[in-house]
Amino acid sequence: MTAFSASSGGGQLALDLTLDPDYRASSFAVSEANANALALVNRWPRWRQGHLLLVGPAGSGKTHLSKIWSERAHAIVLERDRVERSLSRVTRGTSVLVEDCDPGVDEPGLFHLLNRAAGDSGVSVLLTARSFPGDWPVTLPDLVSRLAAAERAVLHEPDDALLRQVLEKLFRDRRTPLGAGVLEYLLMRMERSVDFARRLVAVLDNAALARKGPVTRALARDVLTALSGE
Amino acid sequence: MKLTIERAVLLKALGHVQSVVERRNTIPILSNVLIQASGDHARLTATDLDMEIVEEAPARVERDGQATAPAHTLYEIARKLPDGADVTLELGGDDPRVFLSAGRSKFHLPSLPPGDFPVMPTEDLAVSFSLPAEDLARLIDKTRFAVSTEETRYYLNGIHMHPAERDGRKVLRAVATDGHRLALAEADQPGGASEMPAVIIPRKPIGELRRLLEDLDDDIEMSVSEGKIRFRLGAAVLTSKLIDGTFPDYERVIPRGNDKIMRVDRAPFAQAVDRVATISQEKSRSVKLSLSDSNLVLAVNNPESGTASEELSADYSSEELSIGFNARYLLDVAGQIVGDEAIFEFADSASPTRVTDSGDPNAEYVLMPLRV
Predict the structure, then answer these.
(1) Quick one: pLDDT band at residue A172, thresholds 50, 70, 90?
(2) How confident is the model at residue A1, as a pLDDT?
(3) Per-residue pLDDT tens for B338-359?
(4) Is B2-116 in CATH node 3.10.150.10?
(5) Which CATH number fits domain B255-367: 3.30.950.10, 3.10.150.10, 3.40.50.720, 3.60.15.10?
(6) Gap from A5 CA to chain B (nearest CA, Å)
(7) One GO molecular-function annotation for this sequence (chain A) (predicted)?
(8) Cβ separation of B284 and A12 shorter than 8 Å?
(9) Which DSSP string corresponds to chain A?
């Protein structure tokens, strides 16, 4: 958590009382930044070669989208660095999710997994990553070519409409009480990234809890200043 | 309706129900208590629409029926009547008022139609079990001080209660937090409680419940659904709506690996905190704890009202540490500790501190520090 000095709150620090994020399909905010990716994920099980690569920056909705898919496809989750040893769990018709593939992926394991998906085993695989495979430190030539040919769903940094929905969801997830006009105030001034929105909401929520009140415009201004000075 | 009831019995029953009634009500009938007479008892009901207390008391009923009368006024009258008096309550004939008589005292009190009195809809409270009154009182006492009073975070305005397991032992757990501190207490899980949904019981019924528990040694019966909770305590039944919200994942904020351990005698510690806090700032009530080898110094530095310090011996052998807390929070926790020692587990001056009780393994507390 970013250390925001809640000095006007008398210096009291607050517990980090987060709630479980809401990953329901109905709460996934859609805009031009992610509509194509959503459509591609929803085309399952008609993915080319039985797999799909979901790429987007931190906080762009990879986890949310993959949770929605996992629920629908009853997917199992394999750890990226131990795919091979879990392959016995991947039987005919299994759906598999492997998250955050860019660093340290188990290359032989992933290669075998993608081969199964490409065959007629009915196996589906959703991979998520922050960057495109060309930037992953993968050395196994067959895997490099498989990944290069993989169908891709791309999540972009949010446009204004999406940022508003994201901000609303983040505050809703934490049940943060908001003063009048705070959302608009933040939207006009904040950095345009979901990653920043997450940090911003976490710090604002914590500071409001420390002060035992809602997020006011004054608090929003102080926190924005503190975060942009980092 | 006409009934006669002993003054002490009436006073006790009214005492149990009348505090539910708010002093100011926009709906007039909510200021009244519903009196229903039948068989050999009177049944008194008070409600604020979110909670209701019903109490039955023995009475000599001459004429079955029901009436409503102003709750606080009736209570004050009963309080001022002489001990041992018989009180007669009557409604009937052309007079729309309730007539109360006891010895030479006579009152005519305004009444409202009993048919207008709001009755809490009965619903199936699927999970039901009984537990010792003492256990429920303990769960409340150990946690209620940490319940938030900030209305905007409504989901913190109550005690979160749910079945849980600790080290293989099934428990009924109560948790409260206002974001600055957290209190958790456990009792043996009563048979049948494992199916209980996780609930948040609002502050007001908690207060009423605690008062009703004062006079009780027996087991109480607890019935729960997703939206309501009911406690049957002797002759009284308290039913309340629950807070419709999700309690945060509190277990994440209880630090389990803090390695700087201080054991301190509870009573001298609490007294010293109270003394030095005399000059702390009204708002933050900041007290700094400075720990070194077997030594604890409590200090307050207030630019307006001076400085204070007090030294205590403490069992501490980790590296030196300075950490600030709100004195009120330290005293609240110290007030709950029943053993001789309070055990503080620190990480650093900006992280949550866990406090446990040498005399009660079934309670723990978390305090967030103040920057000092």
Answers:
(1) confident
(2) 44
(3) 999 999 999 999 999 999 999 9
(4) yes
(5) 3.10.150.10
(6) 9
(7) DNA replication origin binding
(8) yes
(9) ------GGGTTB------------GGG----TTTHHHHHHHHTTT--GGGEEEEE--TTSSHHHHHHHHHHHHT-EEE-GGGSGGGGGG--TT-EEEE---SSS--HHHHHHHHHHHHTTS--EEEEEESS-GGGS----HHHHHHHHTS-EEEPPPP-HHHHHHHHHHHHHHHT--B-TTHHHHHHHHS-S-HHHHHHHHHHHHHHHHHHTSPBPHHHHHHHHHHHHT-
Strand partners, B56: B43
Residue B2, helix vs strand vs coil: strand
Asked if B252 and A16 come within 8 Å (Cβ–Cβ), the reply is yes
pLDDT (mean) for B107-112:
96
| Chain B nearest CA to A99, separation (Å) | 23
Q: Please answer whether residues A42 and A182 qualify as being in contact, where contact means their C-beta atoms are separated by less than 8 angstroms.
A: no
ipTM of model: 0.86
Residue to test with chain B: of A1, A15, A215, A219, most B Cβ within 10 A: A15
Share the mean pLDDT of chain A.
Answer: 88
* pLDDT at residue A66 greater than cutoff 80: yes
Residues A127 and A40 in one domain: yes
Tokens 């406690």 identify what position?
B231
CB atoms within 10 A of CB B8: 15
d(CA A226, CA A31): 30
CA distance B10 to B14: 6
The contacts of residue B292 (CB under 8 Å, 6+ apart) are: B316, B320
pLDDT tens column, A121-155: 889 999 999 999 999 999 999 999 999 889 999 99
Q: Is B256 an interface residue toward A (CB < 8 Å)?
A: no
